[in-house]
């Protein structure tokens, strides 16, 4: 109790990682940010009966992890992950797939080294988020394709949403991620 729930937000530049994190923490949609900065935000939410402190690490897109060491450090830090793509950019969805395999690889090395069952034998709690659904006319990835990909990648949470239009949806990403991790830690022996 009292330990923050640490969430790492990842994805290609300009998909809306900062917009999503800021929307969740402040309820506001803020249009433009300095793309070079990494930011960390904290906030508290009551979820079911728990008072949860969220620690959200919004990574800068440009460091899209060609450098494995940087990512390794962050994977070690995080309890759960949010992978963001933009529904009008297919490359950004492929980047989420790449990041999922990269973080799984780094996390499995971590649990092997420690030889412990960490959050369900190396399984990870991940949300896949397709952002900018307000740009319907530019859509390249349907919601059902996004959902299918999330299932294929073993993600616990999927949303096709617009951070611009919905605080509720942005907030649910983080809340559902917390609930998914909680469910999972209740059954720690379950393999994925
Ligand atoms: N139409 C629309 N634009 C959005 C939405 N969310 C974010 N944007 C815009 O997308 C652009 C990039 O948003 P950011 O939040 O800076 O994206 P990021 O992934 O943090 O980008 P980097 O910091 O470069 O990694 C900005 O111009 C936002 O206003 C959305 O839901 N709809």
From TrEMBL:
Belongs to the small GTPase superfamily. Ras family. The keyword Hydrolase applies. Keywords: Hydrolase. Its EC number is 3.6.5.2. This is small monomeric GTPase. It comes from Capitella teleta (Polychaete worm). The keyword Hydrolase applies. It catalyses: GTP + H2O = GDP + phosphate + H(+). GO terms for molecular function: G protein activity; GTP binding. It is an enzyme of class 3 (hydrolase). Pfam families: Ras. InterPro entries: P-loop_NTPase, Ras-related_GTPase, Small_GTP-bd, Small_GTPase.
């Amino acid at each position: 109790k009292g330990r923050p729930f640490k969430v790492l937000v990842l994805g290609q530049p300009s998909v809306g990682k900062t917009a999503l994190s800021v929307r969740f923490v402040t309820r506001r949609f803020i249009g433009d940010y300095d793309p070079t900065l990494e930011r960390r935000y904290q906030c508290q939410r009551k979820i079911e009966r728990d008072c949860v402190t969220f620690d959200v690490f919004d990574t800068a897109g440009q460091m899209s992890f060609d450098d494995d060491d940087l990512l390794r450090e962050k994977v070690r830090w995080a309890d759960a992950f949010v992978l963001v793509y933009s529904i009008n950019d297919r490359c950004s969805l492929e980047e989420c797939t790449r990041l999922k395999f990269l973080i799984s690889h780094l996390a499995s090395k971590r649990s092997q080294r420690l030889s412990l069952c960490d959050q369900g034998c190396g399984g990870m709690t991940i949300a896949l988020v397709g952002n900018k659904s307000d740009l319907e006319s530019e859509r390249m990835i349907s919601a059902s394709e996004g959902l299918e990909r999330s299932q294929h990648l073993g993600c616990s949470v999927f949303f096709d949403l617009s951070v611009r239009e919905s605080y509720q949806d942005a907030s649910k990403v983080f809340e559902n991620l917390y609930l998914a991790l909680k469910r999972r830690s209740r059954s720690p022996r379950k393999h994925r």
